[in-house]
Design goal:
The complex is a heterodimer.
Chain A: E1 2-8, H1 14-29, E2 33-36, E3 39-43, H2 47-59, E4 66-72, H3 74-78, E5 82-84, E6 87-89, E7 98-100
Chain B: E1 4-8, E2 13-17, E3 20-25, E4 28-34, E5 38-43, E6 49-50, H1 52-60, E7 64-68, E8 74-78, H2 88-97, H3 100-124, H4 130-138, H5 147-160, H6 173-195, H7 213-219, H8 223-236, H9 244-251, E9 257-260, E10 263-266, H10 267-284, E11 293-294
Parallel strand pairs in B: 1-5, 2-6, 5-7
Antiparallel strand pairs in B: 2-3, 3-4, 7-8, 9-10, 9-11
Helix pairs in contact in B: 3-4, 3-5, 3-8, 4-5, 6-7, 6-8, 6-9, 6-10
Classes of the chains: A alpha+beta, B alpha/beta.
Amino acid sequence: MWVIVLFDLPTETHEDRKRYTDFRGFLLDDGYTMMQYSVYMRHCASDENAEVHVKRVKAKLPADGEVRIVKITDKQFGKIEVFYGPKPQPIERTPEQLALF
Amino acid sequence: MIKRIVDVSEPSYLHLAHKQLIIEQKGEAVGQIPIEDLGVLILQNPAIVATQAALLACQQNNVAVVLCDQRHLPYSVLLPLTEANSLHSKIIRQQIAVNLPTRKRLWQQIVRQKIAAQAIVLKRLNKNTVALERLAAQVKSGDGDNLEAQAAQKYWRLLFGDQFRRDSEAAGINSLLNYGYAIMRALVARAIVASGLHPALGVNHSSQYDGLCLADDLMEPFRPWIDYQVYRLAEESADLAIDKRSKVALLNLLSEPVIFGKQTLPLMVACHYLLADFKRAYADRSAKLEYPRWTVLEP
């Protein structure tokens, strides 16, 4: 299960930018990685676990601006088509439960 | 929740960024794992450098950090002392106060389950199990007759033949067994610490030089699982070493589905349930302990 958080936050005033940075920092602390600008993703081992991370995002929603939370399965995630210019790129792989580096 | 197992065997720089473990190799980030998703981190290369912030974050999230020696065998485990469980000191006092009869009866059950597990492995491999099944039924409180050792003697001969000797230094089958046991020991130790018990206070093991007596006690019935996996690896190819193939086979055991009570769940999760039961058995001195069963051995 993948959780994807998309956001558009105002950056006019100093406070706006502070809120933006705090929200982005929170996402990284919670284990998200940047997919694109303002789009962050996180893999969760189970549906229950995904719910935990969705709840955490909801608890940290900034006062202004728009935030969308999408939950998709590993299979759906794998079907995302990625392009860099006209060149197709592979989508990030679902992390294995066992990883060797 | 099922946690991730990460094995680092290449020269790497491990550091922390935004509560995530960053693994850098040759100046490039090759991995990024949220610490809270980690369960076991195995480090086995002399050229691994880790920041103390990364190690501390692992401890704060009860990650068992396993350090390996020159032979690639797990040599030590880092486990948190404080805050793994909020009732740590109360539970330790309870653990110290457990009387000898309770400990003896628990040890009886552990040995019985170990011998039974050995018999199941032999049965699965179509070998003679009569002797072991008989011994399992005869284990007395505290195993004063040391049936554990008698069973082991018969078991190794039946499993790997008359020529085989268990050895903690030898190569081949032995080195894989040692690797598997050490990983299993780390997993059990992690569950012990998470339950608030102290791993140095054992049921039967009591060596003053052993910091993980309780883990050594509780992992006994899991040893035959490693034996089975190593047997299978030896069947595939006689050229055995701690390499990628054998590591994947043995490390995957930690997340294998097991039957515990009426549920099927990964071993790593079942271990926490086992420890909860064990703690209850300690507290009310009922000394009833049921081990998970591996679905691969008993379909």
